[in-house]
Design a protein that fits this description.
Layout lengths: L1 E6 L6 H4 L2 H8 L4 E6 L12 E2 L9 E2 L1 H12 L8 E11 L2 H7 L4 E6 L4 E2 L9 E4 L9 H12 L8 H9 L15 E2 L2 E2 L9 H19 L1 H5 L5 H19 L2
Parallel strand pairs: 1-2, 1-6, 4-7, 5-6, 5-8
Antiparallel strand pairs: 3-4, 9-10
Bound molecules: ligand 9D3.
Length: 251
């Protein structure tokens, strides 16, 4: 996959893109990454990339010319571009795993980032989609672009090893994960649940399923609304409701 980022702070990408899984993916040639500074494409003497808003008001607005020129210089006519051009913006569609899955099927991605200001509305004509990573205000689109790139790259074949293919079957069930434990069996007086030491795989499966349901019920009740639940799941949830009721009434 070919990934291009347009940013006024291209060096922000160096760290995250040169560590861990991202570094391995690049070294293996699974992704090609480039962060491009669009400031050199500013036409004014002082290389301004923003200007005051027409109609007045506070704040500055990113000018269209530098972003259009940088992109055309790098990919030619954006209308002929075979990949996806994504505008990172607080007004974008909230990013989801489903969107990551969909983007991972593209061969070329371009991310356009602003920094603490709005885009001139005509910049939107360049983009195929506009993505936000959630309802909080950041200083720019760079960290959000890295979040999307990270979520997409780990889905590419060969990027994760064994762990990745494993996850596809065990974890795509829409629940939060059950608790995990490793050695030691007792840490500062707190023991690993007995069932996990039992060697009884059916008991372990049931315990994990129930604790995944418990965690989802306690932390993300919204996820349970849309999920297909088996008869066993419903039995576990009834037990959980009773148990958690006991916990809050102090019995
Ligand atoms: C909400 C404030 N905006 C009104 C003047 C200006 C503005 C503030 C901060 C415009 C852009 C930004 C920087 N944020 C992003 O570029 C951004 C972002 C975010 O802040 N939160 C979640 N997702 C994203 S994607 C890009």
């Amino acid at each position: 996959m070919d990934i291009l980022v347009l940013s006024l702070f291209p060096e922000m990408f160096a760290g995250p893109m040169s560590q861990s899984i991202m570094k391995k993916a690049r070294d293996k040639g699974l992704i090609h990454f480039e962060a491009m500074d669009y400031r050199p494409y500013a036409t004014s003497k002082h290389k301004n990339v923003d200007d005051i808003p027409y109609g007045g008001g506070a704040g500055m607005v990113l000018k269209p010319e530098p972003i259009f020129s940088a992109l055309e210089d790098r990919i030619g006519d954006p209308a002929q571009f075979p990949g996806k051009i994504i505008l990172m913006s607080p007004q974008g569609r909230p990013f989801t795993q489903e969107m990551a899955n969909s983007l991972s099927r593209e061969t070329q991605l371009v991310f356009v980032c602003g920094h603490y200001e709005g885009f001139d509305e005509r910049i939107r004509a360049l983009a195929h989609e506009e993505i936000s990573i959630g309802d909080y205000v950041l200083t720019g689109g760079e960290l959000p672009a890295m979040v999307v790139i990270d979520a997409v790259c780990r889905l590419l074949p060969g990027v994760l090893g064994e762990a990745g293919s494993h996850e596809a079957d065990s974890f795509s069930d829409g629940l939060l994960e059950h608790p995990h434990y490793t050695r030691p069996r007792v840490f500062r007086g707190r023991e690993v649940p007995e069932v996990l030491l039992s060697g009884n795989h059916e008991c372990i499966r049931k315990w994990r399923r129930k604790e995944a349901l418990r965690r989802t019920w306690l932390r993300r009740r919204d996820l349970l609304k849309t999920l297909p639940l088996t008869k066993e799941d419903q039995k576990f949830l009834e037990e959980i409701h009773r148990e958690e009721e006991e916990n809050t009434t102090g019995k």
